[in-house]
Amino acid sequence: MDSVIINFKDQEGFKLNDKLKPQLSIALPNRALNLFKKYIIARKKARANRNPISKILEYKTDVLVNQKNLTSKVLLVAGRGQVKKFHEFLESVEIYGEKLGRVFVEGKNLIITPDFKKYRVLANPNAKNDESEFIQVLSKALDVSKFEVIAGSIQELLDIYNHKGTISDEFDNQFNDLINEAIENIPELKILKEKYPGISESVSDDFRAVIINDIQ
């Protein structure tokens, strides 16, 4: 790995310790050099106010972890009907003074899914046709009076689909939340549930851990 030299405006720079390289981010090309004394002050302040992820990953040291550089993910298999509960949990529980949802950013370092469907390797030549048929049925549901109270949620699902061009993880989570919340009052949602083909996006996530919630 190449050496990194830290330069300053008012004095000669120094070679950065290799252990500190993961903390670096690429600076803007037009950013001015810092004064050495300001660097020392900022460094001490950063050590005293380490972010929660640093305290979790490097709890025995004062190393600072640059969260922007973290690429590994944790997959949390919540179980059907449990995804929303975990969303609420992330927003209600704090660690080191910060909400879990900000420490473990969903979609970046944390993936929450109701099941393993997205991660099964299945060859289904009719998958796109099934998806297209389902979206047509979902669109027609907007004009069905029995679905009037959830028309806003259905339109939001269609907007997500049109933006992504496929049934994504976000679409899947919101669709399953809608089914679980409304099917008791709107039994006709069973038709949509039966036609739902599931996620179709490709997966190449770098998972470091998989957590399965209370599989019976």
Q: How would you explain this protein's 3D organization?
A:
- By secondary structure, this protein is of the alpha/beta class.
- Among the domains are: 68-118 and 203-212, no CATH class; 127-195.
- 38% of the residues lie in helices and 11% in strands.
- It contains eight helices and seven strands, in the order E-E-H-H-E-H-E-E-H-E-H-H-H-H-E.
- It has helices at 36-48, 52-57, 83-92, 100-103, 127-141, 151-164, 169-182, 189-195, and strands spanning 5-6, 14-15, 73-77, 94-95, 98-99, 110-113, 207-212.
- The strands form three sheets. The protein has a three-stranded parallel β-sheet. Strands 1-2 form a two-stranded antiparallel ribbon.
- The longest helix has 15 residues, at 127-141.
- It is elongated.
- The termini are far apart.
Number of strands: 7
- Determine the strand fraction and express it as a percent band: 5-15%
Mean pLDDT: 81
**Sheet with most strands: strand arrangement:** 6-3-7
Shape, principal axes of CA atoms? elongated
Total DSSP helices: 8
Order of helices and strands: EEHHEHEEHEHHHHE
Radius of gyration: 23 Å
Low-confidence stretches: none
The major β-sheet equals: 3 strands, parallel
Percent helix range: 25-40%
Q: What is the terminal-to-terminal distance?
A: 47 Å
Estimated structural class: alpha/beta
